[in-house]
Each structure stands twice: as structure tokens, then as C-alpha cells.
Amino acid sequence: MKKLQSTLPNMVIVLVVVAIASGALLAWVNNITKGPVALQAELALANGIKSVLCQEELTVTANDTVVETFSGKEFTFIVHKANNKAGQFIGAAIESTVGGFGGDVKVLVGFDAEGTVLGYTILQSAETPGLGAKADKWFQKDGKGSIIGRKMDSANPLKVKNDDGDVDAITASTITSRAFLKAVNQAYVAYEKQNSNAQVDGQSGATKQATDGKANSNGNK
Fold first, then answer.
1. Torsion on CA atoms 87, 198, 150, 145, rounded to nearest 10
2. Neighbour-count burial for 6-17, b at 16+ CB within 10 Å, e otherwise
3. Could you tell me the CA-to-CA distances from 208 to 27, 61, 194, 199, 221 in Å, in that order?
4. Alpha-carbon torsion 159, 163, 168, 172, what sign?
5. Which is the most buried residue in 13, 135, 152, 212, by most CB within 10 A?
6. Are strands 104-111 and 89-99 parallel, antiparallel or unpaired?
7. pLDDT tens per residue, range 23-77
8. How far apart are CA 1 and CA 17, in angstroms?
């Protein structure tokens, strides 16, 4: 076989062929792994919802996307509402993302029907290596900055002690602590507003049914 000469056109051809082959290989690998990766993510989320709502047997009844504006910036939340095995509403797990010191911090936090923090887990963290893992434990029930069991109040959001709050910040990482608490506070606002809207819609529907029933009983249409 004749050896390919080292000319510029030949080098370009070789590079193009290698690039095409590499692209095709990456596309094939991505296509093969896409399904398992998505399945793994769904499983992790399902387990996360059970964990933050402290229920092993539950049914997710809704996965609502909610957009709220804070300080002129839009944030997107996913509200996973759930019932227990008896069919009773137990609360919701909220996916909330904010910007931290090194990048986005994505939190899944569970609230009961009264707005009490049941649990949380860090779904994604681009913070300095180690800080994400520390945040995943620091604010838990046995952590120094525990928020578990706290009754949320949108008028009095959670704050670190440096900001005149009562939550202990992660040692030497006040910015990450602020980002985490911001994610929790904003998640609660989204949850509270959605519940308020649902109650208003429910009451409006009940009022309409009562009015219609009264009209029908009087023989009116």
C-alpha cells in the first residue's frame, strides 16, 4: 500500500476523518447511555422525594413547574406533591436552584401540609469540592445548622447568624450557607403560593357548585 504523503491537504483529510469518526463514536456512546442515565436520575429523584418527605410509601400526585420572580429574576421550581398510602395529602418536595459561590446549588426540600421542613437533600452543587457534601449534612437534624422541624414563614425567612438570623453557617462558608437557605426560602414561597392558589380555586369551585345547587332547587337555570 502506498504511503500517504505528508502534505497539507492529506493532513486536513486525516483530521476530518478522525473528527467524524470520533463524533460518531461519541454519539453512539451517548445514545447507548442516555436511557440508563435518565432512568438512574428518575430513580434518584424518586428516592429523594421519599427521603425529604420522610415517607417510604407515598404516591406523587403532581409534578408542577412553577415560575416565581425574586429581586427581578425568574426562578423555576418543580413541585412534587404527594399523598400517603391512605390517600391523604402529606406535603410536597420542591426542586429549587440558586447561584452559589462556585456555581448553581440545586436543593430538593420537603415541606408538610403546614409548611414545616421535613427534610432536604442536595441534588447538584458546583461549589468548592467538599462544601456540597458538607451542606448535605450541616443543616440536617443532627447538624450544627439544623433546619429540620422549622415552621416556615415567608415574612421571616431563614437566615444565618451573620445576617441577624438564627441558623449557624457552615464553618468558613457563609456564602454557600446563604445560597442554601435562599434555595429553601424560595422553595417555600413557591409552595405556599401554589397551595394558596389551589385553595382559592377549590373554594371558588365549591361556591359555584353551591350557587348552582341553590339555583336548581329554586327551579332556575
1. 100
2. eeeeeeeeeeee
3. 55, 25, 21, 14, 13
4. positive
5. 135
6. antiparallel
7. 776 766 666 655 655 666 678 889 999 999 999 999 999 999 999 999 999 999 9
8. 19
Q: Which amino acid is at 206?
A: A
Q: How many residues does the chain have?
A: 221
- pTM: predicted TM-score of the whole model, two decimal places: 0.73
Cβ neighbours around 157 below 10 Å, total: 16
102 class by beta-carbon count within 10 Å (0-12 exposed, 13-18 middle, 19+ buried): middle
